Amino acid sequence: xxxxxxxxxxxxxxxxxxxxxxxxxxxxxxxxxxxxxxxxxxxxxxxxxxxxxxxxxxxxxxxxxxxxxxxxxxxxxxxxxxxxxxxxxxxxxxxxxxxxxxxxxxxxxxxxxxxxxxxxxxxxxxxxxxxxxxxxxxxxxxxxxxxxxxxxxxxxxxxxxxxxxxxxxxxxxxxxxxxxxxxxxxxxxxxxxxxxxxxxxxxxxxxxxxxxxxxxxxx
Length: 219
Description:
The chain has nine helices and no strands. It has helices spanning 8-12, 14-46, 51-65, 69-84, 90-116, 119-127, 132-162, 174-185, 188-218. α2 (14-46) runs antiparallel to α8 (174-185). The radius of gyration is 21 Å and the shape is flat. The mean pLDDT is 86.
């Protein structure tokens, strides 16, 4: 079987594949930033002394964490244009889906990170006359982010893998680009082995970096 492999098809379509990888990386990066921002707000809401606010944030998190990501992608792909009353690019629809979905997971990571900060740090901030928001901004969140860096990076790796699910709505990411080349050139095996190797190398490098950070922080 491997005697018939022709990897020149990969070399001849590198530019096309690179464009697909750009889409994958842009989607991943924006979803990480958006998910972190929304997740941080949700985490603060969950830890809020106002029970109604905490309940709403908790319901949001439990709802999205109970849903398959592929179903959320379908929802927003068809629902966002309907709500806005005009066509919306598929990229923006799935981007909203990823941000909303990842925010639920980042919320729980952030909440655990905030709760990992020692109480005496919070009391010290209060003793200095800092308000709740100032205490969170200058004392708690900087320490929490440092504690959470490894797991946040791990979640980013998972998100990078999950972006391949946009295949189901036809967004031309790295996987879809490879599939188009495979069907056009009739070289399915070569293209999908290449896709697997690329994902493996990127995710392995990210995992090794996370382990290195964990060892560094443990010291």
